[in-house]
Amino acid sequence: MKYLTLLTALVFAGSAAATDCSDCHETIDLTVHLEAEATLATCNDCHDMGSAHEVDMELHEATLTMTECADCHGM
Predict the structure, then answer these.
(1) Which of 9, 16, 37, 67 could form a disulfide with 71 if both were Cys (CB 3.0 to 4.6 A apart)?
(2) For 19-75, how does the pLDDT look when each residue is reduced to its tens digit (9 = 90+)?
(3) 67-74 long-range CB contacts below 8 Å, 24 or more apart?
(4) Do 11 and 71 form a contact (C-beta atoms < 8 A)?
(5) Would you say 64 and 37 are in contact if contact means Cβ atoms under 8 Å apart?
(6) What is the pLDDT of residue 49?
(7) For residue 74, what is the DSSP state?
(8) What is the pLDDT confidence band of residue 17, given thresholds at 50, 70 and 90?
(9) What one-character DSSP code corresponds to residue 73?
């Protein structure tokens, strides 16, 4: 699945299909999240993304790191 994620990142990087976090709210402090080794699951734990965000879990794994998220999405 990591290979598919990487391939998807390369396809969508910089494209309109990859929604940026900052499209809807302020830019996040990526440094803090990287230091905490945050993953997509961490985002859900702290921010309850499920109630406000529809995430395609076929393209996104709960173990995706913030760095991997930032490859496709502006933070």
Answers:
(1) 9
(2) 777 777 788 787 887 777 888 888 788 777 777 778 888 888 888 888 888 888 777
(3) 67/34, 68/5, 68/9, 69/40, 70/30, 71/9, 71/13, 72/8, 72/9, 72/12, 72/13, 72/18, 73/18, 73/19, 73/20, 73/21, 74/20, 74/21, 74/22, 74/27
(4) no
(5) no
(6) 73
(7) -
(8) low
(9) S
What pLDDT shows up at residue 9?
54
Over 2-70, what HEC string results?
HHHHHHHHHHHCCCCCCCCHHHCCCCCCHHHHHHCCCEHHHHHHHHCHHHCCCCCCCCCCCCCEHHHHH
Find tokens 């529809």 and name the residue: 54
Tokens in use for 35?
Answer: 């230091």
